Amino acid sequence: QYSMDEWHGYLRVATTVRGFSGNMTTVRNDVYVFDGAMDLVGSVTGLAPGESIFAVRFLEDQAYVVTFRKIDPLFVIDLSDPASPQVSGFLEMPGFSEYLYPLDAGHLIGVGKDAIPAVEGNWSWYQGLKLSLYDVTNGSSPAELSNVTLGDRGTDSEVLRDPHAFLYVPGLSLAALHFAGTAPFGASAIVAGYPLDRAFTAVPARVGRAEQASGPDIYNTVRVIRDIYPIRAHVKPGNSGGPLIASDGQIYGMVFAAAVSVRGTGYALTGGELAPDIRRGLHRTALVSTHGCQ
Question: Quick one: pLDDT band at residue 13, thresholds 50, 70, 90?
Fold first, then answer.
């Protein structure tokens, strides 16, 4: 993402090029600067030989490039002189970022994967989703101020593929997704998600009267009673866990199932049903076993 950029009439491009010769594979990472006539003006070549570029962010006269194979170097490149770009500094750490977001003039947020370097071999074991806060105020000495790893191996985020899935609003005193009160009977809503693990969809829905439903918990060990909304909507596999969105953008609840016997009907947990788990989740840091989740 963002491996190409234009600034003050110059095109900047970051590339990873792989070559094959017999049983040998070569990988090189370069940053090129072109003028308006597409003539090469300057370049930085040979960044982290053998690794590949995982994330790039051009910000005015600076470039931030993440490469990875066994560890993650974050390179800071000074592009203030288009004819003579230079590596100002770099930071090495386990894991890697696949998305870089400019928090302010001196800080970046990175979203990617944590990783444990293998004892033998030039590779690493991917782990959970890693969020990092980088200080790039001093380009010659970038630093990771803090990080948090969510989940374990296999934990994923749409941010790694679609930057629109990331939202940061400075000074916002409300949550990015704000829960509405009880949905009125017959209210219009939207079911959003990635049904069948394909493209993002947002389909219209009509909210039924809130009711209580009895059923097994997710571990299929005890029966629980939940507050739910029946909804008239085309709910498909993959919509589960997605939001039920009110017409004003607030959240009525979370879609969790489609009816088996009634076509065009689904079910959503109410905001009130979700609230206690959300409050508890804000302070939970330990991993939770799925226990053969049904």
Answer: very high
| Spatial contact of 105 and 159, defined as CB atoms under 8 Å apart | no
Q: Is the pLDDT of residue 93 over 60?
A: yes
Average pLDDT across the chain, whole number: 86
pTM of the full predicted structure?
Answer: 0.59
- Could you read off the pLDDT of 123-135 as tens digits, one per residue? 677 777 888 999 9
How far is the C-alpha of 66 from the C-alpha of 136, rounded, in Å?
Answer: 13
Which conformational region is residue 243 in: left (phi greater than 0), alpha (psi within -120 to 50 degrees), or beta? beta
Other Cβ atoms within 10 Å of 90 Cβ, number: 18
Between the CA of residue 44 and those of 15, 76, 270, what are the distances in Å?
11, 11, 54
pLDDT at residue 135 in the model: 94
Q: What is the 3-state secondary structure (H, E, C) of the chain?
A: CCCEEEECCEEEEEEEEEEEECCEEEEEEEEEEECCCCCEEEEEEEECCCCEEEEEEEECCEEEEEEECCCEEEEEEECCCCCCCEEEEEEEECCEEEEEEEEECCEEEEEEEEEEECCCCCCEEEEEEEEEEEECCCCCCCEEEEEEEECCCCCCCHHHCCHHHCCCCCCCCCCCCCECCCCCCCCEEEEEECHHHCCCEEEEEEECCCEEEEEECCCCCCEEEEEEEEEECCCCCCCCCCEEEECCCCEEEEEEEECCCCCCEEEEEEHHHHHHHHHHHCCCCCCCCCCCCC
- What's residue 292's pLDDT? 60
User: Quick one: tokens of 246?
Assistant: 């009110």
